[in-house]
Input
Amino acid sequence: MALLAGKSGLIIGIANDRSYAWHIAKAFLEHGATCAFTHLPGERSEHRTRRAIESLGVTNPWLVPMDAGKDEDIATAFEKYAAAFPRMDFLVHSIAFADRDILSPGKFINTTRAQYTSAVDISAYTLLAFARAARPIMARSGGGSIMGMSYYGADKVVPGYNVMGVAKAALECTGRYLASELGPDKIRVNLISGGYLRTLAASAVAGTDSISERVEQQAPLRRNVEGADVGKTAVYLASDLSSGVTGETVFVDCGVNILGA
Ligand SMILES: NC(=O)c1ccc[n+]([C@@H]2O[C@H](COP(=O)([O-])OP(=O)(O)OC[C@H]3O[C@@H](n4cnc5c(N)ncnc54)[C@H](O)[C@@H]3O)[C@@H](O)[C@H]2O)c1
Output
């Protein structure tokens, strides 16, 4: 069943074939979507992202550079998208950044103003900036679905997650305010709170190695989340199956978040 046939949109955040965004793109493509992509500026990043997308069977992908920390890059990427595609039905925000020097247990107190600001800027503010740029394009399609990736560290203290937890709390709250303002335009905004997955971003947080083992023993589903689990939920959020859902944070973590201890 192709839940996304006839839908097209932009996926931001594929670094390689382990990225959450890669798994989301895989699921979207399997459901008949047309996907466009961005990569971090630079030849190496472009090569890495292109190779990952091509491994999904997409030849000659629509791929433009974008550093989400630069307003002009965001504007250019969305302008190019708007010129190339008649509609934007979905937008996937799957990016985050924090200085890895402060992502280890006991280091939160060392976070400088600049480190704090840049983590919240790249990981949370960008959802707002992308949504603003997407709004007029989504209006052409009569609405759309915007989604971002969060983590349980937004709600509870996860050792070492530190300023990224602050940024994720800001991201989730940003999603709710956006959902409220964009709802009348039939634009839905939701977050997926994904379980721990071994990716480049996850490796920046010290001490996460033990998470997998603990999850396997204690999670209600007695296993770690797989990228495909998040991909399937993203399809649900992009599709009409979730037509009445907005402003939510959906946990896809094999149930870890319901545990008290
Ligand atoms: N891996 C996990 O355990 C986990 C769990 C829950 C949520 N998440 C979230 O999922 C999202 C994707 O992370 P991932 O785990 O797939 O890791 P990843 O390293 O594969 O992806 C992170 C992406 O962020 C991009 N990025 C960083 N700074 C950027 C900037 N200035 N401009 C544009 N792009 C930038 C990187 O290029 C990369 O593509 C992040 O929001 C992350 O916090 C990850």
Notes: Residues 13-15, 19-21, 40, 66-69, 94-97, 122, 149-151, 194, 196-197, 199-202 surround nicotinamide-adenine-dinucleotide (CB under 6 Å). DSSP finds eight helices and seven strands in the chain. The chain has one domain: 8-255. Residues 8-255 form a domain with the Rossmann fold fold (CATH 3.40.50.720).
